[in-house]
Design brief:
Layout lengths: L4 H13 L5 E4 L4 E4 L3 H12 L4 H15 L6 H11 L2 H11 L7 H7 L7 H11 L9 H4 L23 H22 L5 H13 L3 H10 L1
Antiparallel strand pairs: 1-2
Helix pairs in contact: 1-10, 2-3, 3-4, 3-7, 9-10, 10-11
Amino acid sequence: MPLNASQIHALDTAIAAYEFPLMYFDFSTGVPLTAPSITVLEVTIQRLLISPNPEDVKDGLANVIYWGNANAGYRNHRVDRFRAGVTATQLTSFQRMVAGGLVPTLRDIERLGMPGYSGISFVSKILMFLDPRQYPVLDLQLASLAIPQGTRAIDRLVVRTQIPISAHNIVAYDAWRLECIAMSSTYFGGRYRAVDIERGLFHLIQSGRSRDASDIYHSA
């Protein structure tokens, strides 16, 4: 059953209301910064990720962890662990993967073995910053939209303490991103990116409206 007008309005409103800390970190000065908008944050981190300078790439990948853990008390520990553990070889390999505007696969990034990037939650954040039009995030909060015997992509995820990067879950993630693209095309004339649809559902979850989010997702 397609979304009704009320559900379309609810998702549209949630996309506009999405908020998440806009903080990132300037590792050259040791100063935390706040972007004026999510768009500026996206561009800032994307530029670091695709930079020809390996230190910029290191800062970009560290900022994906910094931003993604914005509300977690262990944020700085995870950032420090990444920065202490990532190798020059891993950074160079990542640079090759994204050269010329390419977007690597979940498996490509997992195989690098970089600290903090073993599950879909954070690896999908890298993909999102590289191409937010085509790639949404998929984390444990979004995985909570799953319903028993459901037929949508998230329903098919195999979730443990994290969302492991398995052949099964890779297929589910790719289906999820296509669902987000299709929802934008079907209900909003394509004006929203895949990540915007994901953020609308995420905002509903964060606002205590998980049931509404699940109903919208499974009806779309």
